[in-house]
Amino acid sequence: MEILGNTLGEIAGEKAGIFKHGVPAFTVPQPNEAMCVLEDKASMVNAHLQIAPPLDANLLNGLKLGLEGEHQYINAGLAIGLSSTWLQRTGHLDVTYLHQDSTLPEQFIRGLTTASLQGRAQVVPDQHIDGESFGDLVFYLDGAHSPESMVICANWFSWAIEGNNQPNQLNHLPQNNGKSLDALQKNHVEGCRKNFTQILLFNCMSVRDPQLLLPHLLKTCATHGVYFKKALFVPNMSVYYKVGSHALPPTDSQVDLSWQFTLQRYWENLIQGDKGDANNLNAVCEEVQDDTGMSVRTCKNSAVFPSLPLAIKWLRDSVQQNQSIRFQVLVTGSLHLVGDVLRLIKK
CA dihedral defined by 186, 189, 191, 193, rounded to 10 degrees? Predict the structure, then answer.
């Protein structure tokens, strides 16, 4: 934000810096504030700006996009406009498919339906839990970090767990980790007899405003009847492992958790509807030690862990201690956090 600007117009102006004289430019439908800036910038450099419509799902011949989320049809339309125009200009296509007036080439359909992007609308079971408990801890990862993307993330998560919680529906099941389809189906149906608990694993950079992020997440999930049993706030691991740095990362006891405590206070007040002094929250929170001796601040609806590995350990322990419950963990707020979780939960 400190680089791109604080308004849609400012951000659009910075993004439009890529426009070049005589080179086709593409965008998707935008709010007027942003579109006017894009059009002005394109006119200044004599770039032909075109608006790519969202992909018509009927052109996929009954298949689904490889990337989850309704917003991906907007991205797919932009990809079609860009790629077909480049192919035409380089002599590989006679026409562009920007306006989707005819069927798409088979190569386009294959690319759109097999595309994958880690950390965006991604479902991953904890691969360190095997046997009958496999699937009892599933991570739903999306690196949303803006109010708009938080709404999209909340909608996707709610739809995804609704599909996962229904017997005989494998639409949203994650990769089967080498299991046969019959075994996965059996595991899924047995799991649907269990209770489901939703957990939020969250962090965002301090330049972000949690008062613009968390309410959107909470309210959007609530419209689907989805409520988080507990929110876990942790610092990102990757902050302490910078490329080229020879400094040792701080130990758990040395990590500054003041930002995570701020997130926790806001979450508790949001859940409880408490409009009073946030400092009063200290009365309903307590410091507890886990079996490793590390201190965790836990409240009625949330907990702050000094490190991500400790939070993952708590989730795994919870699975072992609650055999009748399946834990569905939404990881969001930061792409750094999502990447850290992926590194920890994959074998």
Answer: -140
Instruction: Tell me the three-class secondary structure of 125-171, residue by residue.
Output: ECCCCCHHHCCCEEEEECCCCCHHHHHHHHHHHHHHHHHHCCCCCCC
197 with 297, same domain: the answer is yes
Rounded to whole angstroms, the Cα distance separating 147 from 211 reads 9
**Dist CA 157 CA 140 (whole Å):** 7
For β-strands 325-332 and 302-304, DSSP reports them as unpaired
Direct distance between the N- and C-terminal alpha carbons of the chain, in angstroms, rounded to an integer: 35
Rounded Cα–Cα distance for residues 117 and 342 (Å): 12
List the structure tokens of 277. Answer: 């002094």
Q: What are the tens digits of pLDDT across the range 167-201?
A: 544 444 444 455 544 545 555 555 566 799 999 99
Nearest-angstrom CA–CA distance, 99 and 238? 42
Structure tokens that stand for 320 in this block: 């072992």
Distances (CA, A) of 158 to 35, 154, 184, 295: 31, 6, 22, 32
What letter would DSSP give residue 210?
A: H
Same domain for 259 and 146, yes or no, is: yes
Q: Could you give the CA distance from residue 7 to residue 101 in angstroms, rounded to a whole number?
A: 35
> Could you read off the pLDDT of 71-89 as tens digits, one per residue?
899 999 999 999 999 999 9
Q: ∠ at Cα 123 (119, 129), nearest 5°?
A: 115
Q: Of 153, 170, 186, nearest to 70 (Cα)?
A: 153
> Same domain for 205 and 335?
yes
Residue 346, sorted as left (phi over 0), alpha (psi -120 to 50) or beta, turns out to be beta
68 domain-assigned: yes
Structure tokens that stand for 316 in this block = 């795994």
Q: What is the pTM of this model?
A: 0.79
| Amino acid in the structure at residue 242 | K
> Residue 1: inside a domain, yes or no?
no
